[in-house]
């Protein structure tokens, strides 16, 4: 079982998912694990606006959303901040979509459904330097 070091500080994060249930689940899981949720968004367009306002250090990103999907949003966010840490959290488990997200700048992929431990491990891995 892989074990990640706990982050050395609190990281600001944004949760992007069209499901309010998933947004709340990620918020609850992250809040106790060295991450502070500063913004949430239900689609890529909302995420871009929230990013400009709150400048989070990391983002969890769903892929399938209305108005602007996660792949397009990842591309736009990385254009704004090349070092942004993005974790894709998606029910889409096909490798092509995951590879495309990584090519656009995401740094990790977590499949839904996920446990709190799986999310915390993925977030910790994302901020390890």
Gyration radius over CA: 13 Å
The proportion of residues in beta strands is 15-25%
Instruction: Spell the H/E element sequence.
Output: EHEHEHEHEH
Count of runs of 4 or more consecutive helical residues: 5
Structural class: alpha/beta
Biggest beta sheet summary: 5 strands, parallel
Global geometry:
globular
Order of the strands making up the biggest sheet? 2-1-3-4-5
Terminal CA distance reads: 20 Å
Averaged pLDDT, please?
Answer: 91
Low-confidence stretches: none
* Helix proportion: 40-55%
The count of DSSP E runs of length 2 or more, i.e. the number of strands, is 5
Question: What do these coordinates show?
Answer:
By secondary structure, this protein is α/β, with parallel strands linked by helices. Helices cover 43% and strands 21% of the residues. It has a 5-stranded parallel sheet with strand order 2-1-3-4-5, with helices on both faces. α1 links the parallel β1 and β2. The longest helix has 12 residues. It is globular, with a radius of gyration of 13 Å. The two termini are 20 Å apart.
């Amino acid at each position: 079982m892989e074990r990640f070091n706990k982050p050395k500080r609190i990281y600001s994060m944004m949760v992007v998912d069209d499901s309010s249930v998933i947004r709340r689940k990620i918020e609850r899981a992250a809040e106790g694990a060295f991450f502070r949720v500063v913004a949430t968004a239900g689609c890529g367009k909302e995420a871009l606006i929230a990013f400009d306002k709150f400048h989070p250090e990391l983002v969890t990103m769903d892929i399938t959303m209305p108005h602007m999907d996660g792949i397009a949003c990842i591309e736009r966010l990385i254009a704004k901040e090349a070092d942004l840490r993005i974790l894709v959290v998606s029910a889409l488990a096909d490798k092509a979509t995951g590879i495309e997200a990584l090519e656009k700048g995401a740094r990790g992929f977590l499949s839904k459904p996920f446990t709190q431990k799986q999310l915390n491990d993925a977030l910790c891995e994302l901020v390890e330097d």
